[in-house]
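The passage that follows is intended for readers who have already worked through the single-chain material. We present the inputs for a multi-component assembly, then the predicted structure in tokenized form, and finally a short commentary. You are encouraged to pause after the input and sketch how you expect the pieces to fit together before reading on.
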Amino acid sequence: MEINKKIIYGIDFLIIVGSLITLIVMFGYARPLVIGPIDNYNTTNNSVLFTFEKGKAILLDDNIEFSSPQRIFVENYLVLHLEPGKYYWKIEGALPSTVRTLTINSIVDLKLRKIEGGKEEYEVVNAGNTQLDVDIYHNDNLNRTLVLDIDESKQVSGEAFVGRQNG
Amino acid sequence: MDSMFNILSLQNKIKNSRRESRIINALLILLMVIFAFVIGSAQISALGITPGRININYEEGKEVSGGITIVNTENKDIDVVIIAQGEFNQSVKFSEVSFKMKSSEREKRIQYTFNMPSQLSPGPHIGEILAVQVPSKTSGGETSVGATVAVATQIHVFVPYPNKYAEASLDIVSDNLGKITFVIPVINRGKLDLVRVRANIDIYGNLNEKVDSFNTNQVEIKSGERREIAYTWNSNVTSGRYRAVATVLYDEETLRLEREFSVGKPILDLQQIEVNDFTLGEIAKFEMLVENQWSEEIKGAYAEMEIYNPKNEVMADIKSQTYDFSPLSKKTMVSYWDTGGVKKGIYDSSVYLRYGAQSTQKDFKLDVKEDSITAIGVGYVISAKTKSGSSTTTILLIGIVVLILINLGWFLVLRKYMHKKK
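Having made your guess, compare it with the prediction:
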């Protein structure tokens, strides 16, 4: 009698524990494997490589609630070109992945190339990742302000050039 | 023998002198390249700074510290000076105010400490951290570029308004399934928390008639926080331009936002291609029936047809004249193909309907016979949506069902049976 009871309780235990282990393994298997970028990734490069397995879409938003996410259907990897800012992202698959963050820092990068033969004539290049306001000074006075898009260049004359993020 | 030796010696001398001149030429070219590189690099001056902007919520007397990175973009030896300017020029201190960067030094991190001044008026306040590249001297004593280059990191400090104050904007995002999401990011710029923030959105058509009206979700926004309220609208309306008027209600206050948006896309649809009165070797007149599925006028549209030979090379590229389509109308676009030298057979073809920056492609085959041309198998090229993930879901579901069955089978059937057996 006692032995039978013990066997039944043993089978109870095996089934409950076995079911729990199987569930954990299955959910672990079904959850997308997020490879990159790493959590809290910081960069000034606008192009970010997303790599993952067992997922079908990247969900990207500027808030952790994902209230208006951008959903990009893709398999395994994709390079996204992102504006500077902080992003929350996760992978959608059979189950959602954990949420990671990444930050694209704006970089103000101003390049000046002297034009041959021109007195104080320069080609001003926005080599950063954000639109620039460029103040141009002549005789210590602000002469004009130029707006330069990313990678845009313009020929101008001046003695001093100050670049700052537009907007 | 002597003369022979002399000739050989002369030949050797000539060979040697040629070799020398080749070496000299190569050296000259190398020197010129190095000179051009040095001159070229001396003519460029560059400097970078990151981040471009630092946003700080105002707290009187609080000290904020952080770092900025100066980037030596051109990898040159440069002298840099760091200056605080603008409203906070007395409030920002740096770990270093001037330094040299060698060509091998790509970046330099500078720490700053910002003491927020007291009694700032409500609203935005802007200061700057300026990195200035001091014009350097060449060995000849002349400046390399001559002009001064400076880049700035802006410090944006927002001082909250005394009471309840919200700032919001209206973003409209549409997908390919006809769903349009209205997103309203709201920033609480006041000192007090906003307990109930929601919006009512009215949609107006072309004739200013109200088409629909709905409410977003409701959220609570603490002072200085930013949150979004949103609504996804199933746009069961004809394609065209609409206007959204959003009234953001935050506690007792309101804020009105307005924005135009489009439902659907301006689409020209190729419905039919006909060639009448055709004889092989003569000019074929293609009549393409095209529908404007957009509820607005499309101007300057034209059709471009490419016909490919069996080697998949373009054997004909023909264009129609331009056409203007009134809203939701159909028109026949005409283009001509000179079939001189063309043999009977089936040819792959594509028609591109081009309008503005857009184009619609339709691929089909042309069955060219002695006295007729027929367009066969018209169909759009569409990208298939990925089905990845569905198999994993199936495995997961099957696994769960099996587990449930095992548990039910044991606890409800087998266990009772074993008890009875006792």
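Commentary: The helical segments of chain B are 2-42, 390-421. The two ends of chain B are 127 Å apart (CA to CA). How closely did your sketch match?
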